[in-house]
Specification:
Length: about 575
């Protein structure tokens, strides 16, 4: 192939957000839009790192992925990349990409040094919906801010990019290697099935035999909803073939370019079918719900954990996994190096860390902040309130891992009861037992999606301004309700990475109450249009007689305060959030 240099000019708005660049497909389809971003990334990595490299390019299979893969292959070839590894039909979950970077060796011993992940995660897909791209580094984790900042700077000055225009499109539906000869030598594209790599890794972490035993028990029933995302490409292999689950346990496990028209976000609002099956929806499907249910998002890094008629908050989920990991999961049998959560995630994990005497870290929102801690051997298990849970087996959150972690805990707790006549220890039992031991963190998140960006900014500015006088804040708070604790402090969260010393400012507005309650306000960094305001509300209850309340009811005083303090209705014109989780 030949290399052509195409001249281009900067395009506005290519700043990577919490997890890469996400825009409507029609934006990505503009001339040079994808090309500029890809070249800005290559330039940020520097030519020395790019030349001769092995790159992974794949994603959740959403609409436009097939076109994007071919464009990136041609640009990689022209930039002197030696090899590109592509998942069959462009499919590779975000955790699988991370695993492939860390674990896979090519036939000649080559190792990948990074990846373009093509996903907009939990955002809908299709011609009128979202596409996205992000770069992951050699450790398998998302590029740190130092790199994403450089990428953005490069998008503002880009003038040209090289591309191998005459390189034929590679057939990505068939496994195999295609070799080309370019001006700088050989260039290979290898199409493979990443499920092999991923299954191998999962088997090295969990005791599949004990999970298999759990799944074979008539007492234990299970349902998994991939919401037509890429998790479906792994679910059959793992749950049915390896662990012996029934085919009928899998819902929406055929990956689709438009996720079947749905919103591939595993929460109580969007995972409707699963929610109904688990006996949690308004429309009862009839019949006895399964004992355990789970769902994934588009790129399979998120998870929702459900019991029969029971919802496990993601903040509780990571705390429960941490509390049980050493006993229930072979990978952790020699102990946990530490645990971490993102700032808006509830403090349930903090209580476990304290009681088990574990190192603990609170980082800004987004998985990229956990990577340094893990690389430095300071953190084994971490999680976010946004249905993200994972460990240092890779450098992304991992939806299927979380399901296997819960299955391991269930298998462990039911070791003796699975064959006998004793009752199954259920998901709900495990959570209630956890609350009884550690106390309960009532938690909810209100999302106001696609509000006017200017108004959202004003709301945030209003909240920051209020923080300058705590007595004034307390006057307002007490004027709204007298039955809540005093606000003890208020600030904008700032993080200093304990490993590299880098500082991230303005990571969310916090109001902290004397009784440990918290209100947090953030603007989302993953939307593709307008602004999304996230409001996180949390209250800790140690009193065992008060841990069984309905969470919206328990939190209603704090909700009222949050909405009035922020003047939510006034700024957004919304009387209710789009999504409550
Ligand atoms: C959201 C979540 C955050 C998560 C991020 C990426 O970000 O709040 O916790 O890490 O999505 O998840 P934001 O900026 O919109 O609040 V995913 O599944 O998109 O990779
Ligand atoms: Co995701």
């Amino acid at each position: 192939f030949k290399v052509t240099v195409v001249s281009t000019s900067p395009i506005d708005g290519q700043k990577p957000g919490t997890s890469g660049l996400r825009k409507k497909v029609k934006v990505f389809k503009q001339p040079n839009y994808l090309e500029n971003f890809v070249q800005a990334t290559f330039n940020a990595l520097t030519p020395e790192k790019v030349k001769g490299a092995t790159l992974v390019v794949s994603g959740d299979g959403r609409y436009y992925s097939k076109d994007a893969v071919q464009i990136i292959i041609k640009m990689a070839a022209a930039n002197g990349v030696r090899r590109v590894w592509v998942g069959k039909n462009t499919l590779m979950s975000t955790p699988a990409v991370s695993a492939v970077i860390r674990e896979r060796s090519g036939a000649d011993g080559s190792k990948a040094t990074g990846a373009f992940i093509l996903t907009a995660s939990h955002n809908p897909g299709g011609p009128t919906e979202d596409f996205g791209i992000k770069y992951n580094m050699e450790n398998g984790g998302p590029a740190p801010e130092s790199i994403t900042d450089k990428i953005y700077e490069n998008t503002k000055t880009i003038k040209e990019y090289p591309i191998a225009e005459d390189l034929p499109n590679v057939d990505i539906s068939a496994v195999g290697v295609t070799s080309f000869e370019g001006p700088e030598g050989k260039f290979d594209v290898e199409v493979f099935d990443s499920a092999d790599e991923y299954v191998k890794l999962m088997k090295s972490i969990f005791d599949f035999e004990s999970i298999r035993k759990l799944l074979s028990s008539p007492k234990f029933t299970f349902c998994y909803d991939a919401l037509h995302g890429v998790a479906g490409a792994y679910a059959h292999r793992i749950f049915v073939e390896e662990l012996g689950a029934q085919e009928s346990a899998l819902l929406n496990c055929v990956p689709k370019e438009d996720f079947g028209g749905g919103h591939p976000d595993p929460n109580l609002t969007y995972a409707k079918e699963l929610v109904a099956r688990m006996g949690l929806g308004k429309s009862d499907t009839g019949g006895e719900p399964p004992e355990f249910g789970a769902a994934a998002d588009g790129d399979a890094d998120r998870n929702m954990i459900l019991g029969k008629r029971f919802f496990v908050t993601p903040s509780d989920s990571v705390a429960i996994i941490a509390a049980n990991a050493i006993e229930a999961i072979p990978y952790f049998c020699s102990g946990l190096k530490g645990v971490a959560r993102s700032m808006p995630t509830s403090a349930a994990l903090d209580v476990v860390a304290k009681s088990l005497n574990l190192k603990f870290f609170e980082v800004p929102t987004g998985w990229k902040f956990f990577g340094n801690l893990m690389d430095a051997g300071m953190c084994s298990v971490c999680g976010e309130e946004s249905f993200g849970t994972g460990s240092d087996h890779i450098r992304e959150k991992d939806g299927i891992w979380a399901v296997l972690a819960w299955m391991s805990i269930l298998a462990h707790k039911n070791k003796d009861s699975i064959d006998g006549d004793t009752k199954l220890v259920t998901v709900e039992d495990i959570v209630r037992q956890h609350w009884a031991t550690y106390g309960r963190h009532y938690y909810t998140r209100y999302d106001y999606e696609n509000v006017d960006a200017g108004k959202a900014k004003e709301l945030m500015e209003h909240l920051v301004k209020l923080q300058s006088s705590i007595p004034e804040v307390n006057k307002i708070v007490k004027g709204i309700r007298s039955d809540v604790a005093n606000v003890s402090s208020a600030d904008e969260f700032e993080y200093k990475d304990p490993v590299d010393g880098s500082i991230s400012k303005h990571q969310g507005i916090r109001y902290l109450f004397e009784d440990g309650s918290r209100l947090v306000f953030r603007l989302s960094g993953t939307g593709s249009e307008g602004a999304t305001i996230r409001l996180y509300i949390e209250q800790y209850e140690k009193d065992a007689s008060k841990i069984g309340r309905e969470s919206q009811e328990a939190l209603s005083p704090l909700v009222e305060i949050a909405l009035k303090l922020s003047k939510m209705d006034e700024f957004t014109g919304r009387s209710a959030p789009t999504v409550i989780t």
